[in-house]
Amino acid sequence: MDALPTEQDANTGTGPTVLERIIGWFGVPGILAVIILMLHTVLNALMRKTPAGSLHGTLEYGGYWYMTMICMLGLVWAQQKGEHIDARLVFDRVPRPVQREFELFSHAVTFALCAAFAVFGWFEALDKMEIGATAGVSGVIIWPAVFFVPFGFALIAIQIVLNFLRLLRTRSGANAAADRSEEGLVHDVLS
């Protein structure tokens, strides 16, 4: 399952980088987590009718492990595929050159937020690891799952940087092509 080119790749004619292909593979554990969550929940419901009773910690595993993995890796995968919702109310109404500036600015702000969440999440995960966090009285160990948060936001931040660099590269390429076109026009007029 290769990472598919994003909309930006189609515009530039370049395929995904090796790093983007690696990041694309992180959607697979998220998909598996959805399947395992469903199986775990169904098995728990069926086991309630048996003398053995329900499975221990189903709610905790679902909430702390599966859902964290599904959400964070789902966000990473959606970012890579360009499947996030865009609210382009103002963006489509401004001139084309200003749209590029908006895109660059939004990439910078998004990177700053994702990097901040990754750093904060990393220290929070280290704190949870140090105290050996569990899900209350059930005793289900949850501290390893907390590492999905900084890991996911770090991957999104990396994707934002790659998109930012691609946007700069296509912008400078488009400007260079426009300059060459104008130079050719001036040369034709002068000759």
From TrEMBL:
Q: Which UniProt keywords apply?
A: Cell inner membrane, Cell membrane, Membrane, Transmembrane, Transmembrane helix, Transport
Q: Which InterPro entries match?
A: DctQ (IPR055348), TRAP_DctQ (IPR007387)
Its placement in the membrane is given as:
Multi-pass membrane protein
Location of the Tripartite ATP-independent periplasmic transporters DctQ component domain: 37-169
Query: What's a Pfam family this protein contains?
Result: DctQ
- What transmembrane ranges does the database entry give? 22-43, 63-80, 101-122, 142-165
Localisation per UniProt entry: Cell inner membrane
Q: What is its main location?
A: membrane
Family under the similarity heading:
Belongs to the TRAP transporter small permease family.
Q: What is this protein called?
A: TRAP transporter small permease
Specify the species: Arthrobacter hankyongi
